[in-house]
Model the fold of this input.
Amino acid sequence: MNRIEVCFSPGEYHLYEADFQLVVVLDVLRATSAICTAMEYGLKEIIPVASVEEARKLQSEGYLAAAERGGQIVEGFDMGNSPFSYMEPALKGKSVVLTTTNGTKAINMAKDKETVVIGSLNNLDALCHWLIRQRRDILVLGSGWKDKFNLEDTICAGAIADKCLKSGRFFADEDSTVAAKFIYRSARDNMFAFLKASSHRRRLRKLNLNEDVKYCLTPNNCSAIPVLENGSLVRMNQETVEAATL
Amino acid sequence: MNRIEVCFSPGEYHLYEADFQLVVVLDVLRATSAICTAMEYGLKEIIPVASVEEARKLQSEGYLAAAERGGQIVEGFDMGNSPFSYMEPALKGKSVVLTTTNGTKAINMAKDKETVVIGSLNNLDALCHWLIRQRRDILVLGSGWKDKFNLEDTICAGAIADKCLKSGRFFADEDSTVAAKFIYRSARDNMFAFLKASSHRRRLRKLNLNEDVKYCLTPNNCSAIPVLENGSLVRMNQETVEAATL
Done:
């Protein structure tokens, strides 16, 4: 049996991370949904950086760069973390530098682990199918909102934990995992309504980003599993995906 | 309108505390349940200290002292944090020094606030009745387990938030508060069963403390509201309780 646990936010990562070498990073609204979508639509790689300054520096060196803070595109950048931006055919095969309020911070926090993969509701089944076959302990890390707990990442973390636990190959010890699973089960039939009280959805609604929210809450419209390799997020190649057997 | 929010554990207190001068501290299993019970049964005061060393020092100076770590009474002490210990008639009017794994840490963390009160399921209605009449912003702080989220404190925090929000005099902004309220509503009809998966209940079951758990999960068997005054927890006097009017 392997262990799967949920850590709600980067602020608590130090309490959970010691036992894990496989970390799934989530930022459902919207960074990791955008990253999954980017891989699905054929981007070559996304280079996650923690600060706007780093993104600007790489932009000045000729990289395409995207930056979001507080839900909005940062001045001087053409893209933020709307998944729709990454469906652009012109981006196929390209590299994009990305910095976001929470998601890229969480990815960078986990970067010393053996394996960092990117999750979202968009690639839920594909990701869980792969995870269940790993025979490894798994930490699911929500990006939260400025180190605080958020509902949408918890729902997605709960979905991943629920599916992995149902396989019978995992156990969970932490109350955070029990709570995430429980919140997911209650929310799954109408996530959009369930999240109407969430602070980040209110934030995005003010910014007219309801279409983004609907997209991010749609399970399984992607099959790509983004994985961190030498500092870049790339699509896990099909051989690696299929090499995993029960 | 005033604001009420839930902070899951001491590790996140710095993210939430800035806006609040009234903090409710919870450690349902078992420190704050024991403290409410102690006040109900007529103890004069409980002096919460963070470390076993401090408790030993005060014990050597002649204080009655209680210490719990990892669910068990620490060697050299006669009591830990079982509520039943504090029902003892011989303790009436006495002072007791107390240190516990999580609860006294959380209490000490909040001690610079204008008002620190102690909550549990045991004094739920009495506490909420008073809180609703304060016209102040309220932070409900769970003691968690070694800085991690726990289910039992979250259920109790959700109960307090739910009752205060229902009064129509409060609003909540944080996702943690929404989640706590939601978990409480799902758990309230059978908390003992709901908590069967919780890590701390499993810990206490191993220690044969199921009777303690049942007691701690019984709402409204106490009406005392313990309040921190000059470093001691004392029962809020009846005049102060009644002075609060809508």
Chain B has one domain: 2-237.
